[in-house]
Specification:
about 325 residues, alpha/beta, Arc Repressor Mutant, subunit A, Rossmann fold, seven-stranded mixed β-sheet, three-stranded antiparallel β-sheet, about 20% strand, disordered N terminus
Length: about 325
């Protein structure tokens, strides 16, 4: 809830003073500052935050309400669950400078080791949920994916976007989560060096078979996620996430890791669902998130040191909308 929504005075100066007071009071609490440090990492549900901070849900809800009322936390609905995150700050916010400075100061204080350990447990539970889905349904992936968006519905637009980028055959490419390899084989035809990365071995094997069926031999396969690529120091000029971000436990990490993995002037290309409310995809397609707002992804990119280059939107007949976003390494 925005602060202005609860103001009852006809005196703008008084309203602004009251809002500023509420904002300062919200920041004047050690636990709430811990919550804000945590929300920089990702979006979390109330139960997840309770688990990470090891506090009762009833006590946590009180603090989350204070932060939300002060405009320091925002909510988004994911099916039947409410997730909290830090708000996207905009210049038209009268307290933009104060909130920005507060967040910068808060982020200089590291999370304590016990909290990080519990945070990793929550994120691992999310990852396991996604991994188990793809392990069980690898042979039906195309059918499951087709419930939302078939490659044939947007592949030509994606290839047009690829053609518009200043890339040559000598540039190296990495696709994260290649599925059954439809896009991967196209990339292998266009670029001399391609790497496929997937933490689901069953899916990686399907992509490997697709590449072999096309007689292509310039693709390297890595079983793991972007953490594994970082360990191997696998650098490249273009990284693609094609309908993958909504399956990731911590989507913001895709941008952070891309910045580390990309060569200078490298590009990150993300094909992803726009925000939607069709929560049936969680069970039917293994989705963790119901798409993303463009501003949300642009914010993650900026925090990671990436610059938004271009965005293409494509509507689908079943009510979903796809966004194809290109980000460049600054």
């Amino acid at each position: 809830m925005a602060l202005s929504a609860i103001s009852t005075s006809n005196n703008p100066a008084q309203d602004e003073a009251e809002e500023l007071t509420a904002l300062c009071k919200a920041l004047a609490d050690a636990l709430r500052l811990e919550i804000l440090r945590l929300l920089r990492v990702s979006s979390f549900g109330v139960l997840e935050i309770s688990q990470i901070l090891d506090i009762r849900q009833s006590a946590l809800s009180h603090h989350l309400k204070i932060l939300a009322t002060a405009g320091l936390a925002s909510t988004r609905r994911e099916g039947n669950s409410i997730f909290y995150r830090r708000p996207l700050l905009t210049a038209d916010d009268p307290h933009y400078a104060l909130k920005k400075s507060a967040f910068e100061a808060i982020d200089k204080v590291a999370l304590n080791p016990e909290l990080i350990e519990r945070l990793n447990v929550v994120q691992q539970e999310r990852s396991e949920q996604s991994l188990q889905f793809f392990t069980r349904h690898a042979d039906k992936f195309r059918e499951k994916q087709g419930l939302v968006a078939q490659h044939s519905q947007y592949m030509s637009s994606l290839l047009d976007l690829l053609n518009s980028l200043d890339l040559t055959a000598q540039h190296s490419v990495m696709e994260v989560g290649p599925g059954q390899g439809e896009l991967l084989t196209e990339l292998a035809r266009r670029f001399e060096k391609v790497v496929a990365l997937d933490n689901a071995l069953e899916m990686l094997n399907l992509a490997r078979q697709s590449v072999a069926n096309e007689g292509l031999n310039n693709v390297g396969f890595i079983h793991g996620d972007t953490h594994k690529a970082l360990e191997l120091q696998e650098r490249c000029d273009l990284i693609l996430f094609d309908m993958v971000l909504h399956h990731l436990a911590s989507p913001h990490e895709a941008f952070e890791h891309a910045h580390s993995l990309l060569n200078d002037n490298g590009l990150l290309l993300i094909v992803e669902l726009c925000r939607h409310d069709q929560d049936w995809v969680k069970e039917s397609c293994g989705d963790i998130w119901l798409g993303f707002d463009q501003d949300e992804m642009n914010d993650w990119a900026e925090q990671a040191g990436l610059k938004t280059a271009q965005t293409v939107f494509l509507g689908l007949r079943n009510g979903f909308q796809i966004q194809m976003c290109v980000f460049s390494k600054i």
